[in-house]
Amino acid sequence: MTTECFIIEQAEKDFDPCLVDISHDAICIFSDFLHKQSNKSVWAEFVNYGSHHLDKRSAIMFGILSVALSYQFWSYDSEGKITHYHHNGEDGSKGMLQALKREWLQHSHPLNLMNAPLDDVWVRSVFGDIPNIDSRVRIITEIICDGYLDGITDYLLERINNSIPYTMDDALKVSTMLPKSYGGDKYFNKAIMLLTVIASTLGSDTLSSSLAPQADDNIARILRAMDILIYQDPISRLVDSRTSIEPNSNHELAIRASSVLACDLIAQKSEVPTDSVDGLLRRCNSFNKEIKHLTATTHY
Hints:
The protein is mainly alpha-helical. The protein has 15 helices and six strands. Strand 2 (about 75) and strand 3 form a beta hairpin. Helix 1 (about 5-15) packs across helix 14 (about 250-270) and helix 9 packs across helix 11 (about 190-200). The chain starts with a helix and ends in an 18-residue tail after the last helix.
């Protein structure tokens, strides 16, 4: 069994229509719309890490670090209210990416960051009041200091240079080599995101066409807004009241599983790669203000 099939099989195990159901009628409507769109992945536009300023190798290194830090841009304030990360006029991942770009370009090469004091004080000086400081320090330290960045970069670059499509085996390799940054997620969400970013920015959309669907909060949010995912109580109540959902709970897994299965069904019906579905969904800017489910995790 391929790793991609394993992801679908895992989603089928975690899927619970009593918690989150999938509307096949809505999928048919969306699939008809998708057929009229370009199949090209738009991940490069979404991440926007400006590889035109970098050579391919540095761009991959930047991708590895920036995608690893793309998670949980919310926290609770002293009064127990949800607050969202803003930095220099940008929200969430865009604020983090802009801050990382500035720091990256100052050091000209990522491994020069080893000379910086990679602690919580440094993280705040670069990213401002970003949530979950401790986990971000661990991730930055693993990527910059633990000695695997060169090896994984060379491996990913070789495949791009030789037009070898990324597969779920590559996602497994990334997760294994960088376990704090990319491991521990049975849906391999950030590893898939990384490979899609690199392929669509430095290669072509066909180089990520063998990857499984992504299981994250943005995809679930948009699928729900399109009436493809139907949240049942208590999940609908938890999400709409902005109450956090425990990681790896039945509720969180039901949301992630239904997202994977819905994207897979859309891809099958439309006869397009799953990354084309992910890319088009993320381009649906009209749904940016829809409520996402909140889970304290480093996986998304």
